Amino acid sequence: MQQRLLRSFSFRLAFTYMALFGASVLLLLWFIYWSTAAYMSRQTDTTIAAEITGLSERYDIDGLAGLIEVINERLSRKPTGSSIYLLTTAINTPIAGNLNRWPTALADKDGWLNFQLENSGRSKKEIHLARARSFTLSGNFHLLVGRDIYELEETQQRIIRTLILGFAITLVLGGVGGFVLSRRVMKRLEAINTTSREIINGDLSRRITLQHSGDEFDSLAGNLNTMLDRIEELMEGVRRVSDSIAHDLRTPLARLRNRLELLRAEQEKTGQDPDLAEQAMTDADGLLKTFNALLRIARIETRQHSEAFSETDMGALLHDVVELYEPLAEEKRQSLSLHVDADVHMQGDRDLLFQAMANLLDNAIKYTPPQGKIEITLEEQADSGRITIADSGPGIPEAERQQVFQRFYRLEKSRTSPGSGLGLSLVAAVARIHGMTLRLEDNHPGLRVLCEFPTIRTTNINS
Length: 463
Hints:
alpha+beta; Helix Hairpins; Heat Shock Protein 90; 5-stranded mixed sheet; rod-shaped
């Protein structure tokens, strides 16, 4: 179920939507980080630039002594603050400030330096990042003004962690939401598929259950149910017409045959040649057989799966079929063998299964040449059984192997040989209501018919 869900279109659609949504959220979070971090960095640079301007103006007014006084005053107000000041001579000898030497970092073209503070001035020594700007005063004095950006870095890292966590939560919630949504969609689709499989297996009365939610699935189910009602109505109409034609024609054909039999008896009494009457009776028998087969197929296709079903021993059934056709095979000098590897039982209608196996064996005997070989095998697999009927006849071309199960379809286009083309159609109808799978393969030479069917476990009462 999980693998089917992961391969489903609804899950792929939900996953694609989640990926697009995640990319949008990621882009939005990146923009938030960029705008927030950039704003904080700009505020720091603006503050430093304003301090440099103020200190430069104070130097111009009060000279070096006034500048030193302002620097010492600011440091005394907040000795452990984040502000950084350093006033040096031309050879970088410290005069005032809270740094003991000029940073070794190189300034960029705008005079900005990014360096590490070896001593932050707090209770314990930590390595903090600092950002400062150098300025050369008249008299060849150097002034460095900056700020400890430890808190700024911490804030930015906290923002990054928060955004990553938010993105991860978004992905998790999106994944869970996509899984739940896909599961609901799969459940609705599986209900439609289950009903469709039951209809394919012959139960045209099945309909898709509506949820009465008014959504697209209910609309689809309603349209499908309406279409199925129309199809069932048309199929029932065709079936009624077919049954009516078969019944209406079978009765006069039976009367015609009876009259032909009386005519043949009368000709025999008068010494006339009864061959014409005999041929007419043979034709009438063929027509009656065709109509009886059509009616039987129609009755099989309209039956419910469980009607007249019982536990059937397939090995015993095949023994009976082979015993019935052995004389015909011996008459054609054919080798007919049966191999039953296991005690295989299935739930089904024994009469219909017997008729289907008899039709398959009859076809094999009919098309296998004299001295040919026919093998029937019954095998038990994991949860199923398999019957194989292999012959050494001409076989069936691969392009026509599915068409031979259609009514009246015959490989012989001239249709001069006996037969109506309904034998395999009856087999297909029986297989359909029993859940059997029919497959035709090449036997090199000849044809191999494979019938796979669900089995049931038998219980030994004496054990």
